[in-house]
Amino acid sequence: RLARRRPPTQRPVTRRMNQETITYLTNIVIGVILAALATNYWWQRRRSRGKTCWAIAAWVLTAADVLFATRQVLPHALGRLLPTLCVTAGQIVLLLGAQKTAGMEPRWRIGAAVLLLHAAGLIGFLFVASPSMLRMAFNGLIWGGLAVLSGLCLRDGATYFWRSLFAPAWAFFAHAAFHALRVVLAILCAQNDWSRAADVLQVAGDLEVSFFMVALFGGLLIAHLQQQHEELM
Description:
mainly alpha
């Protein structure tokens, strides 16, 4: 009987892994559905560069969840780098899509510079002892900043993309506000060693991904349909 029992220290870890697996699988399913809808809309309608960016971003963000779900089988360094950088790449493509939708010229070089900066920071964290909360704050600064830029770009575009509270621009701003709050809480957790609060913060971040993608791509679809309706009238 004693041999069959699991050590008490392993139970919270196993429970957390199960929660993360379920969350990532849910995010993957939602991401695949949204990416398929965005791709189908791009294929059936005018294949503008803006719509192309939205569709690509949906698949990249879904791929990020796949990498997060499988990072336990990846080498440690790759597991810490690839999924996170995939999220950043998806956020950069979203920014390019926002720029194209607003009639701006996409700034590919800025996006590449942000990706390289994030990669350099994550590599540095590989050599720091127990950096999880500070790493989370660093990620939040990058992702929140990209979300703010995307929202501001849409704010300068057609009113369909920012006037309503459920418009894509406000989804970006809400996403940025979440990451701002997450950065503050992550720093507080690192300073005060709040391990349980850190676990809750991690779960909240994983769940927020689904809410953000549903709000963003749902808002984009509605905005594009409204714009098409006005053009046909």
